[in-house]
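Hi team, as promised in this morning's meeting, here are the two structures we talked about. I've kept the exact order from the run log so nobody has to guess. The first one is mostly here for context; it's the second one we should focus on when we meet again. Sequence first, then the predicted structure tokens.
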Amino acid sequence: MKISNIEEFPDVVFIGYITGPVIRCENPYIISSDECLTQFYKANDLTIYAVDRDYLDKTGLENIDFETDPNILGYTLEINPDWEYTIIANPLVKEEIYYSIAGFNDTELILYESKKISRYVGLPDRTEIFEEPEVNDLRLTINSSLPDSQENSPDLRKSENFTEDLDLSSPRETETAQSSILDEVVCYFKDLFGAVRG
């Protein structure tokens, strides 16, 4: 599971914050688009926070109170919604889920599932593309002091590269170009066992 369009928001830092019974990894941690998201343990919860880069530089990651700080916007991911169930016969081997950042409103970070690649044993891979949700009062900056014409224009972040990134006419070629086999193996084991960061 990755967030694919972090680089479209250069003034924002995205931070993973884990809560739950077992936390034995770097927490909180800064998210990059080439790393898999982790909650370390399947019963933990992962919340993604958007923090203005200037605020983070001034305050410091270790000084942010993720439970109460009004200067950060969060989104809680359900990484393992059915972790308590065991499926005995399922040809699904692996799912690669990509989230995209739609933007922000006054109270939260707006993330959505933009692409899912399902890999099966004995069946062809399946790629699904999901549309960006329509959200009222969506803006592209955390700082609401920008003029409305800049904030509410979805075309500001949609460049030629954005549409090229989502071109899935050949999902395996796109994947291979974006990550190596080693990255996929590391991501698989992080998803399976969690990861100790450090």
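And here is the second protein, the one for discussion:
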Amino acid sequence: MALPSKRISIDLLSVRVLMNIPNPIHSNKENYEEGVVYIYTFNDGGGIILHEGALMQFEVDSYKPSVVVHKKEHTIYIGKENDRCWRKDVCKGLRFYYYNVPSNHKKQYDRIFDTMKILKRK
């Protein structure tokens, strides 16, 4: 993921998420009765999911974490599945995931998540 990144703004139900990501090869937004989901896929096979709402499960939710980090109102689950890295962040009804990430790109995806900004929508 040595590609240049761009700053994007994503409106979920109650918040706006600002994050720097490389150009995705595919992106999809799905509104459903209880929420909204954004999915981005990248050249290295990795993906990012941003979700707010209820009654939605993703394959990553079934993975067993090797590390769980509890912060103030924020829990981070980290692991590997099929020799690929994944991470799930849960914070105040929001869920952010990266998945299928090659080990040599994990730091770049961590940086995307660690530097994202979450702003309340008016």
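Starting points for discussion:
The beta strands are 5-11, 15-22, 26-32, 35-41, 47-53, 67-71, 74-81, 84-91, 94-101, 117-120.
The mean pLDDT is 93.
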